[in-house]
């Protein structure tokens, strides 16, 4: 598990700098709830997760909902005392870990507490991630009745050998079943896929992508496998147990996904995300890509309020002790510079279909240099000419394959 970022000490009262409270009413406010429990820790995972239900000291699965509610109450108090205006929640996302390791009633308890404390915008999206083996039909109906609107299933692949390399324990045949149950409950459905697993062939990836389309979810995410240091899979690759696919195969997999998803009625709206309509895009992820505000609840969760970012203690025991004492569970924080915020805005916004407004580049370089970079990107077929004429940088299909190169060309000094 990787170390946390290095930052400045976080105040025990959680107070946010006065500058970050300014004009917050113009920004959307979301909530992320991190549930760190898993049945098995996957070999590729570097998230803050634990394959145990009981840490001792009265901390564990059974006490998690109570501790999450304690941090929610702390968050409301801190924001008000910091001068941040009350804002109803734009979106709520329960991630992990496996949130559905918690009983559905506990998830609903946390959600209803959040709504009581902050309110909820009309049309707000409320999502939980789920392992296809961690829910039954009644759970999904209980979640929908309790206010959830969306469920995201970790499908990853339909190929048993690929799932074995990833240490995924779910049964592929359960995915279409739980997708159908969720639809019957009235939930929007997303499925998450991973491509580029060591040993995975292009044909196997195509089979997984086609299966995902055949289940007819509202949304599909398809992420390339990133090997993070400190994970089991990183050690296996280092020992030579597995070999990562080359860049050409990864590009072919991305192009295959584009072909299969497009034929199935799914349209890209972010480099790794596809939806059937604009209404079924991930509202919560859009808040991240637009660098809006969110409070992260739970061990290791990250938060961001208008340029101030902090992250909670990772281990559930010290985290729980802090929130039970009414103190900030933050491990550290940082106040972002204007330059860092501009860089992050550009890096994130260039990835979405709406694109980056060219005016965002003003001040970073001379107008002549900016135009020269745009000319080069257009000549290379990486950005759409029509969008450029409208004042936006929008990636072409080739540009999506080389998004990092586009960002470096736009911001060569960062």
Fold blueprint:
Layout: H1 18-21, E1 29-35, E2 54-56, E3 59-60, H2 64-81, E4 89-96, H3 104-118, E5 120-130, H4 137-145, E6 150-156, H5 160-166, H6 174-185, E7 188-195, H7 202-214, E8 219-224, H8 232-239, H9 247-263, E9 267-270, E10 273-275, H10 283-289, E11 293-297, E12 302-305, E13 308-312, H11 316-324, E14 330-335, H12 338-349, E15 356-357, H13 367-379, H14 385-389, E16 392-393, H15 397-401, H16 403-410
Parallel strand pairs: 1-4, 1-11, 4-5, 5-6, 6-7, 7-8
Antiparallel strand pairs: 2-3, 8-10, 9-10, 12-13, 13-14, 15-16
Domain Radical SAM core: 23-270
Family: Belongs to the anaerobic coproporphyrinogen-III oxidase family. HemW subfamily.
Keywords: 4Fe-4S, Chaperone, Cytoplasm, Heme, Iron, Iron-sulfur, Metal-binding, S-adenosyl-L-methionine
Structure description:
With 414 residues, the chain is α/β, with parallel strands linked by helices. 39% of the residues lie in helices and 20% in strands. The chain has helices at 18-21, 64-81, 104-118, 137-145, 160-166, 174-185, 202-214, 232-239, 247-263, 283-289, 316-324, 338-349, 367-379, 385-389, 397-401, 403-410; strands at 29-35, 54-56, 59-60, 89-96, 120-130, 150-156, 188-195, 219-224, 267-270, 273-275, 293-297, 302-305, 308-312, 330-335, 356-357, 392-393. Strands 9-10-8-7-6-5-4-1-11 form a 9-stranded mixed beta sheet, sandwiched between helices. A 3-stranded antiparallel beta sheet has the order 12-13-14, with no helix packed on it. Strand 9 and strand 10 form a beta hairpin. The longest helix is centred in the first third of the chain and has 18 residues, at 64-81. The radius of gyration is 21 Å and the shape is globular. The model has no long low-confidence stretch (mean pLDDT 94).
């Amino acid at each position: 598990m990787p170390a946390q970022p290095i930052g400045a000490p976080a105040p025990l009262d959680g107070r946010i700098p006065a500058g970050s409270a300014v004009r917050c009413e113009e920004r959307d406010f979301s909530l992320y709830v991190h549930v760190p429990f898993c049945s098995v820790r996957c070999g590729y995972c570097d998230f803050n997760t634990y394959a145990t239900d009981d840490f001792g000291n009265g901390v564990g699965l059974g006490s998690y909902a109570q501790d999450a509610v304690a941090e929610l109450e702390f968050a409301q108090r801190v924001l008000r005392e910091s001068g941040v205006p009350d804002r109803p929640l734009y979106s709520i996302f329960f991630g992990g870990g496996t949130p559905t390791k918690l009983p559905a009633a506990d998830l609903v308890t946390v959600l209803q507490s959040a709504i009581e404390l902050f309110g909820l915008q009309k049309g707000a999206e409320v999502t939980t991630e789920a392992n296809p083996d961690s829910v039954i039909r009644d759970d999904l109906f209980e979640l929908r009745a309790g206010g959830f609107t969306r469920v995201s299933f970790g499908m990853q692949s339909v190929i048993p050998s690929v799932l074995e390399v990833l240490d995924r324990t779910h049964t592929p045949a359960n995915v279409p079943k739980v997708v159908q149950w969720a639809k019957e409950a009235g939930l929007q459905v997303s499925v998450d896929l991973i491509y580029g697993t060591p040993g995975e062939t292009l044909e196997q990836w195509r089979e997984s992508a086609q299966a995902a389309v055949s289940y007819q979810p509202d949304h599909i995410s398809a992420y390339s496998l990133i090997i993070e240091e400190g994970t089991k899979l990183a050690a296996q690759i280092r020992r030579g147990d597995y070999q990562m696919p080359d860049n050409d195969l990864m590009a072919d997999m991305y192009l295959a996904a584009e072909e299969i998803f497009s034929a199935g009625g799914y349209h890209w709206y972010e480099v790794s995300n596809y939806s059937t309509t604009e209404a079924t895009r991930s509202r919560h992820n859009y808040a991240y890509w637009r660098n809006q505000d969110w409070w992260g609840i739970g061990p290791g969760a990250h938060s961001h309020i208008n340029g101030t970012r902090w992250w909670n203690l990772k281990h559930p025991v010290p985290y729980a002790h802090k929130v039970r004492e009414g103190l900030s569970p933050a491990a550290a924080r940082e106040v972002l510079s204007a330059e860092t915020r501009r860089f992050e805005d550009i890096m994130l916004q260039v990835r979405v279909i709406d694109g980056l407004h060219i005016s965002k580049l003003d001040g970073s370089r001379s107008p002549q240099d900016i135009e020269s970079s745009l000319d080069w990107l257009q000549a290379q077929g990486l950005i759409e000419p029509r969008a450029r004429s409208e004042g936006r940088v929008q990636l072409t299909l080739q540009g999506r394959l080389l998004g990092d190169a586009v960002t470096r060309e736009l911001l060569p000094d960062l």
